[in-house]
Amino acid sequence: MDTDARFVRVVLTDTVNVNRVRVVPMLRFRHQVLTNGLGLTPALLGLPPQFDAVYSGAPVGEVTMLPDPSTIRILPHRKTHALILADLLLPKETHKTTTQAFPLDRHVFPLDPRALLKHAIYMLEQEFGLCVKAGFESEFILLEKDAKTPVDNDVYADMNTFRNHRVAETLDSMVESIQDMDIVVEHFHPESASGQYEIVTGYTDLLRAVDDLVMTRIVIKEVAQQVGGFHATFAPKVFADQAGTASHVHLSLWDVSSSSGNGKGGGHNAYCDALTLPSSFDAVKDVMTGNVTVGMHQFMAGVLQNLPALMALTAPTTMSFERIKPSYWSGAYQIWGVQNREAPLRVSHDGSHFEYKPLDGTANPYIALAGILFAGMAGMRDEAKLSLPVQVDPHTLSNEKRSELQIMRLPERVQQAQRLLKENAVLRSGFGDAMLDNFLAVRGKEAEYFDGLDAEEVRKLMIARY
């Protein structure tokens, strides 16, 4: 790679979605690290977000942090630094040992989140001949240096945002840096909460989309500080009386045989051709859901059926559940709908994809998306039936009506979702015991710790870390 970069940041996104880094001089990276990797304690995957204390694992052992050459990028806002994402491998002497979590590759460390997603993608292709394409909405809040005060009090899509020169320059620089890293930006705009914005990155193959998301978040945080002197946060609920901050993902299934494989679209969308939108709520009883393929019906049904447990992976913190409230467009009930923003699974108007809403920036996106794939594949294996769509805000219905329609409230606390995840056979089978038990140990003890803090302490810590 021809570059003026003098250093390479080798990055691993850990269990609790903290990006851990080793910085290596470029000469050593080229001659040694690119091929041989870096030694790393496996206990790193047992650390919580609030401090360095090993919640799962032991002080003994080592894994290899091996850079993936396809992910290397120069950081446009700091051209002396390159960034590359890494996978975790077992030491060579253990390569003959099988791992329950990843029969695909006996060399990978079974707690590696990125390897987990690779495995889920491989299983979908091998068993069903399908791949997933995805696009993410990266919502964040810009705060002043005090990490308390929002940079504005504008409303959704408010043009006034761009009258603030510091904010406008910062947003422009973010988007330009993201684009310079070969990541497609579709659009960006002010969001609903004070100081809140959203950058939407382009639709592409799932692993590439998640890698792009990790890099996008790194750029957002660093450019916010460098250009505007701001603190950017992805914390799910910064202001108690305003909209929360999410990381919605849009997903569709594609035939592997006809997909271009270049990560930028092409091929045949195996999802559907169109959906029929019921004209009224009562009409839902009588209207079929259109031309969605049987496989995609089943995939969505699998996700919906496992959603209460999935939320422990995709909304994994105490603060995550402060965001997911009825009538906040966050998806608080176990339903799906066509263009219904109160549904956790929202199908687009043309039926080309669906949006998964209970996802935020505290979730490791590799773990979260692997969970969604495992749930969807279980639905396809079991030929699961998709319930009828709900075309209203379910919270406006009476308790009797919700009961009649079998509309259930999703978990309201992270501990409730964690208990469901622990007993969920579908996700345990996909993740393997080692990965799932490690996740539950770390996130479970984290939740216990946060329960002992007052709301302001939680807020400060989450804003600082995420």
TrEMBL record:
<dbReference type="GO" id="GO:0006542">
    <property type="term" value="P:glutamine biosynthetic process"/>
</dbReference>
<dbReference type="InterPro" id="IPR008146">
    <property type="entry name" value="Gln_synth_cat_dom"/>
</dbReference>
<feature type="domain" description="GS catalytic">
    <location>
        <begin position="113"/>
        <end position="466"/>
    </location>
</feature>
<protein>
    <recommendedName>
        <fullName>Glutamine synthetase</fullName>
    </recommendedName>
</protein>
<dbReference type="GO" id="GO:0004356">
    <property type="term" value="F:glutamine synthetase activity"/>
</dbReference>
<dbReference type="InterPro" id="IPR014746">
    <property type="entry name" value="Gln_synth/guanido_kin_cat_dom"/>
</dbReference>
<dbReference type="InterPro" id="IPR036651">
    <property type="entry name" value="Gln_synt_N_sf"/>
</dbReference>
<dbReference type="Pfam" id="PF00120">
    <property type="entry name" value="Gln-synt_C"/>
</dbReference>
<keyword id="KW-0436">Ligase</keyword>
<comment type="similarity">
    <text>Belongs to the glutamine synthetase family.</text>
</comment>
